[in-house]
Amino acid sequence: MSFPILSLMIWLPLIGAALMFIPQGSDAASARNARWIALWTSLIVLILAAITLVDFNPGIHGFQFTETAAWIPQFHIAYRLGLDGISLFFVALSALLTPIAILASWRETRRVRDYMAAFLLLETMTIGMFSALDFLMFYIFFEAVLIPMYLIIGVWGGERRIHAAIKFFIFTLAGSLPMLLALVWMWHHAGTTDMITLMHTPIPPHIQDWLFIAFLASFGVKAAVWPLHTWLPDAYGEAPLPGTIMLAAVLSKMGAYGFLRFSLPMLPQASAYFAPLMFALGIMGVIYISFAALAQTDMKRMIAYSSVAHMGLIIVGIFTFTVIGIEGALFQMVSHGLVIAALFLCVGILLARGHSLRLDQLGGLATRMPVFAAFLMFFVMANVGLPGTSGFVGEILVMIGAIQINFWVAFLTGTGMILSVMYMLVMVRRVLFDHARSIANAVMSDLSAKEWLMLAPLAILVLGLGFIPSGLTTAFHTAVTDLVHAHVAAMSPLSHLAMAKP
Amino acid sequence: MTIFDTMLPILFLALAAMIMLMSGVFSRRDHSFAITGAAIVLFAITARLMFAAPDGTIFHGLFITNDFTRFADLLVLMGAAGALSLSVAFNQRTGITRFEYPVLIVFAVIGMVVLISAGDLLTLYLGFELMSLALYVLAAFARYNLRSSEAGLKYFILGALSSGILLYGISLVYGFSGTTEFTGIARAFTGSASASLGSTIGIVFVLVGLGFKISAAPFHMWTPDVYEGAPSSVTAFFATAPKVAVFALLLRVMLGPFAPLFAQWQDLVQILAAASMIIGALGAIGQSNIKRLMAYSSIGHMGYALMGLAAGSLIGVRATLIYLAIYVVMSLGTFGCIIAMSRKGRPVERIADLAGMASEDGRYALVLAIMMWSMAGIPPLSGFFGKFYVFAAAIDAHLNVLAVIGIITSVIAAFYYLRVIKVMYFDAGSPGFDKRTAGINLVIGVSAIATVLFVFYPSPLSTVSSLAAHALFPSQGF
Hints:
The structure holds 2 protein chains of 2 kinds.
Chain A: H1 5-20, H2 27-55, E1 64-72, E2 77-83, H3 85-104, H4 112-131, H5 135-144, H6 146-156, H7 161-190, H8 195-199, H9 205-223, H10 231-238, H11 241-266, H12 268-294, H13 299-318, H14 323-352, H15 365-368, H16 370-384, H17 390-405, H18 407-432, H19 449-467, H20 470-491, H21 493-500
Chain B: H1 2-26, H2 32-52, E1 56-58, E2 63-65, H3 67-94, H4 100-117, H5 121-139, H6 146-177, H7 182-191, H8 197-213, H9 222-229, H10 232-255, H11 262-285, H12 290-311, H13 314-339, E3 342-343, E4 346-347, H14 357-360, H15 362-376, H16 382-396, H17 400-425, H18 438-453, H19 459-472
Antiparallel strand pairs in B: 1-2, 3-4
Helix pairs in contact in B: 1-2, 1-4, 2-3, 2-4, 3-4, 3-10, 3-13, 3-19, 4-5, 4-10, 5-6, 5-10, 6-8, 6-9, 8-10, 8-11, 9-10, 9-12, 10-12, 10-13, 11-12, 11-17, 12-13, 12-16, 12-17, 13-15, 13-16, 13-18, 13-19, 15-17, 15-18
């Protein structure tokens, strides 16, 4: 058996979190230790993630770095881990953003130890979820995210944090529980919860429809597909900034990843049947949410809405069932993860200087904080898909995929993208340009070294992926092609006959 | 010698209980602490003896020992020992320390062991009443406390009613099958082509009588009042051992002698399960007293456990057993936390009293939060696995509607469990609770660790419960 690198990445943060709870004298000492333990643990995980990126062989079909161990052998449930081209980058994204989120919360003073432990717990859950190859494990990680996130929002959040935390928890739980039934049904049907076996187990079409709805409920809520997104503005708005970063950049990808990993390969007929609905939801998301974003008066909430709009685009890309559309969606997911994290970091930078986030109280920052302004401008451009940034590649690929399916789908999605340019530019104007408004108490210093350290890598990645998109696409090309081929094969009339036979 | 070997654990318990009672009565000084300790040791020894006792049916089918009864016995002993360890400090604080307390619990446990091993309707009733009488007295144990006396009286009157119904059901079953022995009843019911109305009514009455004791809706009315009124240490006991014992018996009766008429009673059990889950979820929302909250929570949990019985299969029984085992551990942890809620020696019971707990006593808050999350069925905690297995059993038996109801009530229930966590973590306040005793720390610590770490090692429990379930279905090979 090879080196269990995935297990290490999953359990290291948990061990780190446990280490923090060793009594260490004064509160100040324990807070300081907690910060450093959290940072170092997440950095080690980041290095391990980098190793998986380097070692990953894009030519191999199926999963790599696989690990298997007995867990509940009586019920054919096992500890199974592995990465393919689809999950590889999400693990990397989680590993990259956790240390950034921890750095961003360096100044947190309230119950630091619990706070850092919650973030490490969150890292365990997210990496575990993206690398799980057993449905029960996937479900456990998927659902367990609620526990640290509930506390992060509820304890360290903003004014209406309690409302937001409970809404987030109940919404997500209500969404996930139907998936538990689907999981139980599939386990009963296939006799195992091994995801690879499940992908190759045909399911009768009329059952597929029900399972698809169950998956839609859980993944749709996590990915904030319109109209299941209403928890999101509250949760994003009230969570402490590092929490918002994790929510927007990593947790929302869980839903989209779920569609790719479960709905498409396991329920091909139902996915095809429901594709028009998903297009409609995706397009509604893009257009309706963009208008909603225009009406926001708070910078953080505006970016939150922009995040929902982009999830709509990703959903459209996934359900084109074309290689290029799905690759576009994947690319957009990675890119959006980086960009939205950077945008929220910018919000955090303003917040740390004592600025209000109300758009009518900001303004004129371009002259006072030029470096910050440049970064913000750059990430806004990446968010609206300016060529040369990673956002452009994802959008254009999704468009190409969509136009192969239906002109109107592509057209309406494109309209939504134009709207996104509109509200993002409105935001930039209000924040950076215009005349300076009441900013009496705010500090006007430009970026500190730590802030540079957080924003620069993201900017480099966004730019790099914009210019050399093949770095990403070659890695997941094999996985996506296999996925689409399997889907086409399942949809061919021959397999219908095979399924009709008992 | 097999009869003696099989009877040894219960003989030992009964003898020891008598000695404890006598030593308490004839001693001048108060020995309650020593007797409580002795009772816990006694339970441990009994558990050891149960492993040694051979499988068998003795006294012409009156008393049965197999893996199933052993599993249930162990759960009962565990629940009783846990509740006893929690009781010491609480009883001292509230001034109800008397040597009768542990003795009564031991008598109740004897009743439960008889109940679990019953192979005949007569043994069943004997065990049932022995258990119940001890429980009635325990409910009113704080006899100068108005609420406790009320709880005892209420429990007694309603309990007597349910015993009457049970007895009536037993007589009907006897009348229509001609025997009180389980195997004989099964044979009689298998022979008849269709069930007679009388035997069906008999089965329904037995189900009602037993349903009362596990507080399955709509026979749950007594639960919130008794849970609230009885001293917390007694409530901790009520929530664990008797529930397991009666549930184990319910499984054995319904899937043993009454199994041939499965089609007749399956719908009824489904209704009980659905009603319990719904009432458990909705009833708890408005509660401000944590003991009442836990009463509704236990009603809901019984509904989930009943799902396994409604499935009527080996998978279902296994799921129910796993659920009960996990439930006992969670309940002990939760009630440990509830018992620890006291200010200047006086117990406090309002949920609002927990405000600010997380910043004052992080460990306590963490343990109670873990218990609440686990009860809500949030993975990776053990409560999730309980739900997972019962849902699997329900889907396996095509009880899709029941499973969907279970899902919906889980979401509703999550709301009120979350409220407890919300009060502890998000609200400001300073509870200022008294220092916890070692007994409470031990129980809540062990149950919290078991609840959290269960995910890493779930297979032993499923192996053991498989063994137990197979004892109930001897025809199906392991």
